[in-house]
Every structure is written in structure tokens, then in C-alpha cells.
Amino acid sequence: MINLPILKNEAERLSALYVLEILDTNEEVEFDNIVKLACIIAHSPIGTITFIDEDRIWYKSKMGVTYKETPRNEPKHKEFPFYVAIPIIVYGDLIIGHLSVASYQPLSLTAEQNEGLALLSQQIIALLQMRLPIMNSSIKEFYESILNNIPSDIVVFDSDHKYLFANPGAIKNEEFRKFIIGKDDFEYAAYRNRDPIIALERREQFLEVKKRGKTIGWEESQLDPDGNRLTYLRRMFPVHDEHGEFIMAIGFGIDITDRKLLEEKQSRIMEQLSMQNTQLLDFCNIVSHNLRGPLINMSMLVEFIQETEDIEEQRLLVTKLEPVIENLKNTFNELVESIQIRQNTDIQSDKLLLTVCLQETLDGLHMEIKKARAKIDVNFEEAPSVIYPHKYLSSIFYNLVSNAIKYQSPERQLTLKLASRKEQGNIVVTVQDNGLGIDMLKHKDSIFKIGKIFHRHPDAKGLGLFMTKTQVEAMGGRIWVESIPDQGAKFSVEFVNQNVT
Prior knowledge:
Elements: H1 10-20, H2 29-42, E1 46-52, E2 56-63, E3 69-71, E4 82-90, E5 94-103, H3 111-129, H4 139-148, E6 153-158, E7 163-166, H5 174-180, H6 185-192, H7 197-212, E8 216-223, E9 229-240, E10 246-255, H8 257-290, H9 292-307, H10 311-340, E11 350-353, H11 354-364, H12 366-372, E12 375-379, E13 385-388, H13 390-406, E14 415-423, E15 426-433, H14 440-443, H15 464-474, E16 478-483, E17 489-495
């Protein structure tokens, strides 16, 4: 909030004010337009041009307030949480009035907005000086001089949506600025060889302003010559003559690309923080569940080792301690990896042959497959390869195949069918078994949750499917399952944005 400055040289100030013969004059469209533009620049609902008489503050032009004058010793600006007053100064240091903007909500102005308001106050001074005989410069040249120095986009349209004026903020190239005068956006789009969709949208905005007679605002996105997406916040307000007839529209725009990018970045950060918080809770739960048992075993074994004096018994207990420690280490590493997956945004993707990556998994599970006498059928002919991180694909195959072995039915020989297919630029890999299956009605909302176990097994930790889902979603894909209890399960993994053959 900026308070009104203390006025000096009161006699000289009042003399200068009276010479201008501005007090108690009728409304003038030039002053009204300045107030409207000031409100647009500041994004404020209230704007005024006031002159300070001997004992009153008189309102030459106003927007958002109804009073015509107020006592000088009772300024209205104290009513507002946000108030900015730009002094109207003549003869070097005589303050005769103010261009003000205000709001019922706290606001803040950027350096560009402050500069724009300062330029408008100079415009008021120039209008006042034009009342004197020595001032005979044209209003048009004056307006252009002011508007050309405002850093924001400013354009003026006639009643038929033809350009009357465009400042350098709107069109930097002087050749293009000259071309567009007297033409509309469709002609300009054709001249610049641009998509006419923006011209169509701007025509709709103009017609709405003309029809409703009210200011409207919108966001507009477009590509610059380098292909970068730019976003603008635009406003357009109507100008009417003394008879209320629509004569022109003024468009105002500011580049909010950086703000939009910051908002998107903040949104991604919030999403990541939310995910990390969820993972932290899951991590705590699984740690308490999966690590408590091994730690208790270790504690008991250490206690037994300390109590016995028999060397052979101590050696035997030490051998039992080693697998517990190894199991604890593996569980901890899996937990840490599951937490880190989504944070690993620069992981390298390569073109991978599905058969080669699957064979690596089968080689690593050779003994388990042999023991289960599993029959494995593979058909990757339709989509033989994917672009994906090798580490993730190997982990996905390992978790799905090892789970099929782990939860095979004791009533029949294990069969595994793996296949791939193309779907609208994506590739879907399926892994189907004839094992114990999953009760989807009971577990449909918790299939991939951390620590979720569907069947009793000594090696079950509830991490495999959680890890797989995390890896798939980290690369923008998805995973789902179809299953019937005791009839097996079919897992499908979708790899997105695949332009491989």
C-alpha cells in the first residue's frame, strides 16, 4: 500500500490546477480509457483519476466507485487493502492529482506493471497540457508514443475487427506491424503462413466483447518460430462513444509462459512429494512387517551364541545366522530400490529384443524352472522388441515368471505362455500361467500394493508386483491382471510410445 504524499507549495499547486480548468468538467473518453487501461494493467477492479482541490478530492474519471468527490481530510484509499497512487506532476514538482488503482484484496505489482502505470500518468499530464494553447500535437501521435513504450502487448481494433494499432510488444517486426494495419487476423495469418485457428478464436473473443459490451479475459497458447509453446494472459475491453455506440476494442496481453512453466513444475513437485510420502509410509509398514522377523531371529541366534560355551554349537549357530543376514540384506535392497525407481528420471532406454531379455531371466531361474518341470511357450513375433531400460525389463520378467513358479498349483504341471502384440503405437506383453490364481473380487483394489500377499509361501514378501508396477508406471506405462482362483493369472504390461518394428 502506498500512502498519498505530503503536498508542497500549496498556493502554486492550486494555481496550476486552476489554470488547467479541469475541475468539475464533464466525463471525457480519453481519461476514462486511461482508467480502464490502468485497471487492466494492475488486475484491479477499481481505478480513478483524481485532482486535489483546496478542501476536496474531485474524481475526473472513475471505475469501480460511485462518489464524485470526497473531503480532502477523509481520503477513501484507507478503505482498501491494496492501493497505489501515481502522482500527476506539472511544472516539475507540483502534484495536482493522482492516477490510482485499488482492490478489496491484497495485490502486488510487477516492475512492468509499475512502469505501465507510470506511463499512463504521463499520458494524463500530456492530455492536460493539450488544454493549453501552446500544445498542438495530435492525440493519435501522443497515444502511439505512450503505447509503443508499454512493455505489454497492446492492440486496437475498429468496429469491424480491423487493426488500428499494434505496439512492438504485440508485433516486434516493424514490417509486420505496418502490414497489419487495416487488416484482420485472418489476413495476417495468411500473410505469415500460420494456422488460422488462433485468428478464429480471436474473432470469437472480439464478437463477444462487441456484443456484451464488457471486458473479457482468456489464456492463449501458441508456438514461437523455434517451436516453443508460449502462453499469454489476454484481456479485451470495449470503447464506446458519448452515445454508447461501440467504436473500437483494445486488447491487452502479457506473457505468462514462465509462470505457467513454474506452475507445472510446482504441480510435478507436489505430485512427487505426495508419491514420496506415500512410499515412505509404505516403506515404514513393510520394514516393520518384513524386517521384524529376521531381526528377531538374529537377536535370538546372537543370544544363543553368547550363552553357549560349546565351540561346535557356536559354529552351527553362526551358519544359521548367515542366511538370516543375507535374507535381511536382500529385503532391504529391494525396499530401497522400490523407493528410488520414480526418482531415477534419467535412466537410459535401449532397443531390446524380448526373447534375449526373457532368456536372461530363464537362465537365472533355471533350477526353479527345472524343479517345477514348467512348460514355457513364447511368441514375440508380432512385436519382437521394445524401447525400454534393460534393468526394468529384466526385473519385470523376473518378478512375473518367478511369481508364476512360486504360486504354481500342486494339482497340475506349470505352463507359462508369454506373448506380445502391437496396439496403437504401444506394445503389450502378456505373461499367463495356470497356477493358483488371485481372487479379483477380494483383492482387485490391492493387487499391486506393497506388502500384499495372496498365498502362503516362505519366500513371499509382497514386493514383486509392487516393484513391477512402480517400474512400469515410472516409464509411463501400465500393468493389469485378469485372474480366476485356481485357474491361473494373466498379467499384461503396456509399453508406451514404441516406434520399433
